[in-house]
Amino acid sequence: VQLQASGGGLVQPGGSLRLSCAGSGLTLRYYYIAWFRQAPGKECEGVSCVSSRDGSTYYADSVKGRFTISRDNDKNTVYLQMNSLKPEDTAVYYCAAGRLYGSNWPSLRGYDYWGQGTLVTVSS
């Protein structure tokens, strides 16, 4: 079972990136899939989540209106489209899969499987 996160890189402020989270040995549509990020010296925070039940999406206030999470079930992949990037978006981004188990989506306890992380750097 593996989650493979990719798509990070260096981008200028105002630019865009699309992160991908591909499942191997795990059918992602049966799980809540979330993106978390951790900046240097800061705690890991939930960025966005897509529900396994009805496709509902959730976003941290800091990224609402700029980031979009989506699923492609045929490709067993979840995407995070990030637009209007800001320097404060700089972090290692992780994808995670789980069933929440009664936790709210930003809680790390709700996820069983984690990708390896991909670095996003927003800088001029």
Protein model, in words:
With 124 residues, this protein is an all-beta fold. It is 0% helix and 48% strand. It has no helices and eleven strands. The protein has strands spanning 2-6, 9-11, 17-24, 32-38, 45-50, 57-59, 67-72, 77-82, 91-98, 113-114, 118-122. Strands 2, 4, 5, 6, 9, 10 and 11 form a seven-stranded mixed sheet that branches. Strand 4 and strand 5 (45-50) form a beta hairpin. The model has no long low-confidence stretch (mean pLDDT 96).
Shape: globular
Q: Percent of residues in beta strands?
A: over 45%
The count of β-strands is 11
Query: What gap, in angstroms, lies between the N and C termini?
Result: 37 Å
Q: Structural class, judged by helices and strands?
A: mainly beta
Helix and strand pattern = EEEEEEEEEEE
Radius of gyration: 13 Å
Main sheet makeup: 7 strands, mixed
Unreliable runs: none
The residue-averaged pLDDT reads: 96
Alpha plus pi helix count: 0
Please outline what is shown here.
With 124 residues, the protein is mainly β. It has strands at residues 2-6, 9-11, 17-24, 32-38, 45-50, 57-59, 67-72, 77-82, 91-98, 113-114, 118-122. The protein is globular, with a radius of gyration of 13 Å.
List descriptors.
124 residues; mainly beta; seven-stranded mixed beta sheet; four-stranded antiparallel beta sheet; 0% helix; 48% strand
